[in-house]
Amino acid sequence: MDVNEVIDRARDAFSVRRVFGDPIQQGEVTLVPAARVSGGGGGGGGEAPATAGAEAESTGKGYGSGFGLNARPAGAFVLRNGKVRWMPAVDVNRIILGAQVLMGIVLVTFGQRLARYLFLENKPLRRKLFAR
């Protein structure tokens, strides 16, 4: 695949059609879905002449390209009675991940404090729990 062809495909991928979906109309309400779109690409090149000690068949070519696209729902514009309202999409997975990270930080912080409290020599609680 030619590098210019990859660039053309990337240009087609980053269009307004990826960000705003086709409007959906039902009765007096029109809904326009929206998404967050991000991406990137890269490419390479080559073609060096063969060195003097190399075989005659070696021409030293090399090319490469890559492209990535990420799209996530952001919400929708709701048009009703001449008024526009934004309705954000709720990503439950992100909420759960954030809660897990927060709980991990809390456990690490208070776990260290509890361990310090239990294993200090001058605390009476340690003597009661670990007495022989």
Task: Describe the protein's architecture and organization.
The structure is a single chain. The chain has 132 residues and is an alpha+beta fold. The chain has four helices and four strands. A four-stranded antiparallel beta sheet has the order 1-2-3-4. A hairpin with a 2-residue loop joins β3 and β4 (83-88). The chain is flat, with a radius of gyration of 30 Å. The termini are far apart.
What portion of the residues fall into strands of 2 or more residues?
25-35%
Question: How far from one another are the termini?
Answer: 75 Å
Structural category is alpha+beta
What characteristic shape results from the CA principal axes?
flat
How many helices? Answer: 4
Contiguous low-pLDDT stretches (5 residues minimum) are none
Major sheet characteristics: 4 strands, antiparallel
Radius of gyration: 30 Å
Strand order of the largest sheet: 1-2-3-4
Secondary-structure element order, N to C: HHEEEEHH
Percent of residues in helices: 25-40%
Report mean pLDDT, rounded to a whole number: 78
The number of distinct β-strands equals: 4
